[in-house]
């Protein structure tokens, strides 16, 4: 049995030696795989980090652009509000002009709007009550100079100020509000240039 033990011992020794070689080879392969995985992970992490930096920079640009747009919108809204306030005050100033100045202005408006036709001119209750003496004569004179005729309406109309011209059922709105509304864009541009350059 001594030879059998020797043989067993040798087989075990060879198997042990062979197992150690296999284990060493497997460990070397595992180390190579781990190194490659580590390198790949580091490269992936660098790419992810670069992408995150690019994304953060893009987001910062978008935020800055959005803030800039909001600033511009707020500035424009404030400008519009200032212009609107100025125009509202101008309207109030016109509506509260001294009686003579106010009717001088209406006389000039009438010269611009009167047609060479037969018609009726209508005023607000307030304007009828404060109309200067002789103004109805001026109305007739201005209409006649344009080849038409105007008679004063027998009742007050529900208008703010200014007048309405009625020619054959067709109304020409010459109220102060209508004139301001029709010229609002032009007046806004003028106020904008005066206030904001």
Sum this structure up briefly.
With 197 residues, the chain is an alpha+beta fold. It contains six helices and four strands, in the order ααβααβββαα.
Describe the protein.
- Helix 1 packs across helix 6 and helix 2 packs parallel to helix 4.
- 74% of the residues lie in helices and 11% in strands.
- The chain is built from 6 helices and 4 strands.
- The protein has 197 residues and is α+β, with helices and mostly antiparallel strands.
- A 4-stranded mixed β-sheet has the order 2-1-3-4.
Helix content: over 70%
Order of helices and strands: HHEHHEEEHH
The largest sheet is: 4 strands, mixed
End-to-end distance: 118 Å
- Strands, total number: 4
What structural class results from the helix and strand content?
Answer: alpha+beta
Arithmetic mean of pLDDT: 85
What is the CA-atom radius of gyration, in angstroms?
47 Å
Strand content: 5-15%
Q: Count the DSSP helices.
A: 6
Shape designation? rod-shaped
Q: Which residue ranges are poorly predicted, with pLDDT under 50 across at least 5 consecutive positions? A: none
Biggest β-sheet: strands ordered side by side in the sheet = 2-1-3-4
List the helices and strands and how they pair.
Blueprint: H1 2-95, H2 99-113, E1 118-122, H3 125-130, H4 135-145, E2 149-152, E3 162-167, E4 170-175, H5 176-182, H6 184-196
Parallel strand pairs: 1-2
Antiparallel strand pairs: 1-3, 3-4
Helix pairs in contact: 1-6, 2-4
């Amino acid at each position: 049995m001594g030879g059998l033990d020797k043989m067993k011992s040798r087989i075990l020794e060879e198997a042990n030696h062979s197992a150690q070689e296999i284990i060493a080879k497997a460990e070397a392969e595992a180390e190579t795989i781990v190194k490659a995985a580590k390198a790949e992970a580091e490269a992936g992490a660098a790419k992810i980090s670069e992408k995150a930096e690019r994304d953060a920079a893009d987001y910062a640009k978008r935020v800055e652009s959005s803030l800039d747009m909001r600033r511009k919108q707020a500035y424009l809204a404030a400008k519009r509000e200032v212009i609107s306030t100025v125009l509202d005050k101008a309207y109030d100033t016109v509506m509260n002009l001294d009686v003579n100045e106010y009717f001088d202005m209406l006389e000039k408006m009438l010269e611009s709007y009167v047609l060479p036709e037969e018609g009726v001119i209508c005023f607000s209750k307030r304007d009828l009550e404060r109309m200067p003496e002789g103004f109805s004569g001026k109305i007739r004179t201005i209409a006649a100079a344009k080849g038409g005729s105007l008679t004063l309406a027998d009742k007050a109309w529900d208008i703010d100020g200014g007048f309405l011209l009625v020619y054959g059922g067709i109304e020409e709105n010459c109220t102060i509000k209508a004139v301001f509304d029709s010229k609002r864009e032009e007046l806004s541009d003028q106020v904008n240039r005066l206030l904001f350059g």
